[in-house]
Amino acid sequence: MPNKSTQTSFTKEYHCIPDTCRDQHLPMAPRYASPFRDHGIRGLGLHEVAPPYEVRRLSFPWHLALITVSGHAEFECLGEVGVMEPGQIWVGPLETAYQYKALDDWKFISAALYRTHEFVHLEGKMLHRDLSHSTEPIIYAMEAYLQESAATKGPGATAPIGLATYISEAIVRDLKDGQFTGGNRVRLRLAHVWEEVNANPGEEWNLPALAKRMHVSVRQFQRIMKENYDVTAEGLLMRIRMEHARELLSSTDMTMVMVADRIGYQCVFAFSKGFRRHFGMPPGAYRKAANQGAIPHDVV
Predict the structure, then answer these.
(1) Interatomic CA distance for residues 84 and 129, integer angstroms
(2) pLDDT, tens digit, for every residue of 116-167?
(3) Residue 55: C-alpha distances to residues 182, 183, 203, 277 (Å)
(4) What is the three-class DSSP state of 152?
(5) Is the CB of residue 84 less than 8 Å from the CB of residue 66?
(6) How far apart are CA 151 and CA 247, in angstroms?
(7) What's the whole-model pTM score?
(8) What is the rounded CA–CA span in Å between residue 209 and residue 272?
(9) What is the pLDDT of residue 185?
């Protein structure tokens, strides 16, 4: 079990990656890596390291999930110090200071996760627990993906797409596993409500409509949200809609009126204002930057 401490033992970022370390990052070419992004995964890597390998971060714009395959590593995050062991997953939340270092020959999988409604339960909290399944199939799939993506030329990359789908689902499954244990039916119902919102962002969602889906009062719904998520219902609804807007702007030629209508805005001005407040730039500028491949990291 982790030991409690009141603060981190470091004040500066630091990276020690010896030349003997082996890092393989999975290619994220759009023609076959779309399943990763669809599952909220920004990047994936397979690593084999040894002491004195160490990483210290004061902040990071994405959640970082580490799955230990073999060996051991020590971590420090949010006042806790502990050891990652084989068959465990650890997640350092975004915008949080943490460090991890190899204690021996350490083989692990890394996954950078977008800030999406799928992972809202990870915000401000460290996750560290046993996996629900073996890491071997994921390792085999990642190695096969590396080979298939290197051999793929042009469109029609069915093999890497299938592998990317499996890898994504296997990783996300353990990030969600255990959220609804102990007969927590209320939380499960709440998750189903937000899945419905994500599938239909253009409907007229508001607090009364969301509460009605849960069969509770507005006041009860607000209390349930506060107990389960570190974000308000209005904030999560906005985030979901803006995630859809971002995808539509970067991957379609839909007009601003069409995008606004698709995510539930009747007024283009209100949509533009909300998008700018959420991402720090107007939707037109975002589309232009996306087409040029020049979107700032803090926007994606």
Answers:
(1) 9
(2) 878 888 888 899 988 877 888 899 999 999 998 888 766 656 888 899 999 9
(3) 35, 38, 44, 33
(4) coil
(5) yes
(6) 28
(7) 0.64
(8) 24
(9) 64
Q: Is the peptide bond before 208 cis (omega within 30 degrees of 0)?
A: no
Other CB atoms within 10 A of residue 265 CB? 22
Torsion of CA 76, 25, 111, 145, to 10 degrees: -140
Q: Which amino acid is at 47?
A: H
Both tokens of 299, joined, read 């926007």
Q: Which of 202, 55, 188 is nearest to 45 (CA)?
A: 55
Q: How far does the chain reach from its first CA to its final CA, in angstroms?
A: 35
Domains of the chain: 3-176 (2.60.120.10), 185-291 (1.10.10.60)
What's the DSSP call for residue 155? S
Tell me which amino acid residue 158 is: T
Q: How do residues 57-95 score in pLDDT, each as one tens digit?
A: 999 899 999 999 999 999 999 999 999 999 899 999 999
Listed in sequence order, the DSSP H helices in 120-263 are 136-151, 158-176, 185-199, 207-214, 218-228, 233-251, 256-262
Candidates 144, 198, 109, 116; CA nearest to 32 is 144
Question: What are 221-272's pLDDT values in tens digits?
Answer: 888 888 888 789 999 999 999 999 998 998 899 999 999 999 999 999 999 9
What residues does 101 pair with on adjacent strands? Answer: 54, 74
